[in-house]
Request: fold
Amino acid sequence: MLTHPTLANYALFLHNSLMSATADRWSPSSWQSKPAEQQPNYPDPTQLQEVLQQLALLPPLVTSWEVETLKSQLAEAARGQRFLLHGGDCAENFADCRSDAIVNKLKILLQMSLVLVQGGKRRVIRLGRFAGQYAKPRSNDSETRDGLTLPAYRGDMVNSPGFTLEQRTADPQLLLRGYERAGLTLNFIRGLIDGGFADLHHPEYWELGFVRNSPHAAEYMRMVEAIGESLRFMEVLASERLEEINRVDFFASHEGLMLWYEQAQTRQVPRRTGWYNLATHLPWIGNRTRALDGAHVEYFRGIANPIGVKIDTSISPDELLALADRLDPANEPGRLTLIHRFGIDRIEKGLPPLIRAVRRQGRTPLWICDPMHGNTQMTTSGFKTRYFEKILGELEQAWNIHKACGSHLGGIHIELTGENVTECIGGSCGVRAEDLPRAYRTQVDPRLNYEQALEMSLRLARLMGGGK
Ligand code: PEP
Ligand code: CO
Reply:
């Protein structure tokens, strides 16, 4: 029943409205009033502010129209019309900002996407974990060796891996060095793409020499041939080169962990409403920093970019709905990508209730599977590794669970490299536990090597095409 407000409860009503308006007011820096997980401790705040001012003045790395293009492509993926291939290193490091490492990463992503186009009969969005993936969440703030305790290494944008106080002290200058390398990486990628490197007429440009003898080379070459033939056939029919079909884009993404860095490049642009993070196309929130009332969710809710959120068994259906409401109140197409990373033993129980809750609310996020982060384990000799068959197994389960729940898996999120490393065990290239020391190069999580990544895409393509 409605009653006339007395003066006292009218004042209360005004006070509450004012409070919630203030609580709701967002700015690129409003995250600073919330608890922020995983942030380093900068010993000199003045130096940090100086760096942030410089960062904010530098030109953006991406443009708002690219960001909006990606959002509309992700909306298509959520409707089942495209498939998202999201992959790259667990962490980039500054030393790997080299032409061969970048080219090899592009090559494997291009090859995988070609296989997925062929198997899934859908266009593929290529979204790299690159050009800014320089900061990592850590389980502990510090690390102790031989009685000496120092701050944990948090990625090249924060501090250095060497075990001395100097190297482990967070240095704001590294934010600038990271931004510059992200710019160099993107500049090179754009140059390659514009120069025709990704041209579907020339898949030979993407070949990685050392795998010609791989057992998968023949199957891959057959697919490349088939795509080339279809393309030539369509061009004969159309009597012209099909530029639109032929155009291959790459988008950039990273975990939006270092909120100072993200804030510095958050801008308004002419003739558009809202604020854009122009340091990347799609930032995502990691599994450890997605607290509803935390600083990361506060920052992300206000930007116009498409965003991702990692989730696992630690989120309940109700919490997921509250998070989706906070991050995507308008249920905007393409805005929200949910990246589930349960692990092979937990996905069967964990995923269906989340899918059902989201469907009940009429929400239409893009669902993608990260089959890497729930399947990490240690070998007896102390290597952090992942088994290829578990990764594949989780992916297959994800595909089938979505189907059974009336949803669909719209993409994958993987950690890979174009190099011939030995970090994950298995696959037909036969990496065994005892092979790990041979080429174990990651400073953080184990990545699929080139052959394992290609094999994964071939098997996924079979699944997408209705096979096993
Ligand atoms: C990562 O993607 O490297 C990562 C740390 O993942 P998550 O947030 O899912 O643990
Ligand atoms: Co990782």
In short: The two ends are 61 Å apart (CA to CA). Residues 90, 137, 255, 286-288, 310, 341, 373, 445 surround phosphoenolpyruvate (ligand 1) (CB under 6 Å).
